[in-house]
Amino acid sequence: MLENTIAAIGPLDESAMTAARQLQARLTKPAGSLGALEELSVRLAGLAGSCPPPVPDRAAVAIFAGDHGVHAQRVSPWPQEVTGQMVANFLAGGAVVNAFARQAGASVTVIDVGVAAPLPVADVAGPDGAGTLHGAPEPAVPRLVSTPIRAGTRDMTVTAAMTRQEARTAVEVGIANAGKLVDAGAGILLTGDMGIANTTPAAALIAAFTGVDAAEATGRGTGVDDPTYQHKIEVVRAALRRHTPDPADPLGVLAAVGGLEHAALTGFVLGAAARRVPVLLDGVIAVSAALAAAAFAPDSVAAMVAGHRSAEPGATVALRRLGLTPLIDLGLRLGEGTGALLALPVVTGAVRVLHEVATFDSAGVAEK
Ligand SMILES: Cc1cc2ncn([C@H]3O[C@H](COP(=O)(O)O)[C@@H](O)[C@H]3O)c2cc1C
Ligand SMILES: O=C(O)c1cccnc1
């Protein structure tokens, strides 16, 4: 499945992009006045192979959840059980991602690729547990997809986080879920993540794929103090020294220093690119996975839209390498898919312009 997906990923359609540029020039606004939205609309036309491209409606956020053996190195102040507890919170509709998904009208799917604790989902009451909704579209009930690959990764400072086969299975779970959501009608996919300690493998992936030092790729995650931050950098450095991952072998990099949700997100991005559907990236976990996707298939970058600039320094390193400019920059450092959801109306707006705005000719507006 991985090889077929990579083979299906191709470049943008130049003629659709030319048509979109020409249409932008005829719309009733000064040329270039929509800034980054104009180039985004052109790129989405190239991705869809049509002008205008479809409005990216029926947005779907996929939250890949997993645990991390490297948690044993005390790289996060939070106990590992929080991963499963937050999954239950997502399913009950009570997390920040749920509030933003209701606002954006996006569906929420949680995919368990390796949460260590048994999920306490039997107690989940449903979306009404989230309290009163104010004027939001009726929320789709968050769904759980249960495809655990192992009960968390191994500790990457001791051994490879995953076998190559486990990493491949996780990538393929991501591809399969992208395909299922697109088949169900999603016009845009959004990345989400949950996994206590997952900013540590994200930093290791970013250092491995870009070659920056561990100190540049590593951030404070949920908010570690100064001594823990220095220790976290050393943990990332030790893992890289142990495995010397080869950036030309993305499956090997994911297996050595990645996480189950990072690998699944890699597949999710590849799956979106293969189906020529845009994938809106969230924060540092998403962009670390996007680097792996770009290593598998350089053309997959054409399907990626950077939702926001995470406060994690590694995110900026990764975005620079991918050549992506984030749509919003609000100092967020939460994950879950929250930054991607906030950026969704920007993407929808960029495409809606091509569908709905009058031309100088049709509206009888004089040109300069
Ligand atoms: C209550 C809570 C909700 C979260 N939602 C996302 N994350 C985020 O924080 C975690 C990564 O940070 P670190 O590497 O420092 O552990 C991930 O689970 C990520 O999704 C959360 C973290 C917590 C504690
Ligand atoms: O950028 C993110 O997505 C992020 C940052 C800190 C903690 N968890 C996620």
Automatic annotation (TrEMBL):
Functional pathway: Nucleoside biosynthesis; alpha-ribazole biosynthesis; alpha-ribazole from 5,6-dimethylbenzimidazole: step 1/2
Record flagged with keyword Nucleotidyltransferase: no
List all membrane-crossing ranges.
Answer: none
Reading the lineage from the top rank, the first entry is: Bacteria
Under the heading Gene3D superfamilies, the entry gives: 1.10.1610.10, 3.40.50.10210
Residues forming the catalytic site: 336
Which InterPro entries does this entry report, sorted A to Z? Nict_dMeBzImd_PRibTrfase, Nict_dMeBzImd_PRibTrfase_bact, Nict_dMeBzImd_PRibTrfase_N, Nict_dMeBzImd_PRibTrfase_sf
Could you tell me the EC number(s) of this protein? 2.4.2.21
Q: Which reaction does it catalyse?
A: 5,6-dimethylbenzimidazole + nicotinate beta-D-ribonucleotide = alpha-ribazole 5'-phosphate + nicotinate + H(+)
Q: Name one GO biological process term.
A: cobalamin biosynthetic process
Q: Name one GO molecular function term.
A: nicotinate-nucleotide-dimethylbenzimidazole phosphoribosyltransferase activity
- Is Nucleotide-binding given among the entry's keywords? no
Instruction: Name the UniProt key words of this record, in alphabetical order.
Output: Cobalamin biosynthesis, Glycosyltransferase, Transferase
Give the family from UniProt. Belongs to the CobT family.
As for what it does, the entry says:
Catalyzes the synthesis of alpha-ribazole-5'-phosphate from nicotinate mononucleotide (NAMN) and 5,6-dimethylbenzimidazole (DMB).
**How is this protein named in the record?**
Nicotinate-nucleotide--dimethylbenzimidazole phosphoribosyltransferase
Q: Which organism is it from?
A: Micromonospora sediminimaris
